[in-house]
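Sequence only, no structure available. Ideas?
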Amino acid sequence: MTKKKANWWLLTVAVIWGFSYIFVKMALNAGMHSGMLNAGRGTICVLGCIIFFFPQLRRMTKFDFKVGLLLGIINFVAYFLQTDGLRFNTPASNAFLTTMYVVLAPLLLFFFWHERPRLKTYFVLPIAVLGIAILTNVISSGLQLQYGDLLTLISAIFWALQIIYFGKLASRASSPWVIIFMIALVQSICGWITALTTEQATFPHIHWLQAMIPVVLLAVLVTFIAQGMQLTAQKYTDATSAGLLLMLESFFASLLSVLMGYDHLSWSLVIGGLLLLFANAVMQTDLHSLSILKKH
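Reply:
I predicted one. Tokens follow.
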């Protein structure tokens, strides 16, 4: 797979993640809390991996198990905090703070792995952050760090770690589906423990049919398909490019909201989206190959 194709795959993942905001909100509105939501999506994904990829699972190595366990814990904490934060803050604040992993990933790479960001990263990242801020109307409404915002911001740290470890460790696994199985298994176990110990009082108030439909869609599209594409594609691109492409989830979430009638087309959507697209175009372009920049 070429880097160009890998980036197209990651763009598709961002579209699917855009849908996930709607699915999560539907499940929360049906009375389901974060623990049960993660338990359901994890369990469904585990069953899917066993049914479709059992031969690969049988060849799981000790390295696969350790990496999958680490990524599973990171993934569960990130999803749990992000989903729980969405109960207390607005979708705009949640989307903006979640996609801060784009900024955090290269910073974590620099401080803990001593990998210096590319020069154009310093130009692109502020534009990307500004685009998300405009897109989600955070600038006009004012971003106040409430409890839900704090949970979401902490989740962004774990999303940044997942981006990094996907590229550094998961790419060396025997099969991406082994890692996805381990992530889903940890998600399922931790989700059930959380749900059964802290959320039992909420069970009678859950509208199970309304909640399970989006949970199934989350499990199949987001955890199973999108994560498989992400794991495969990140072998062939860098962490910063992956982060910038994946953060387009907030743009696609807004666009889907307009198309489905949940929101109206606004200047913030247009301007913020264009800034994000511009940031990604700059990041994906080899500036030295442009004839206008070549030395004659």
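The chain is about 75% helix and 0% strand.
Hope that gets you unstuck.
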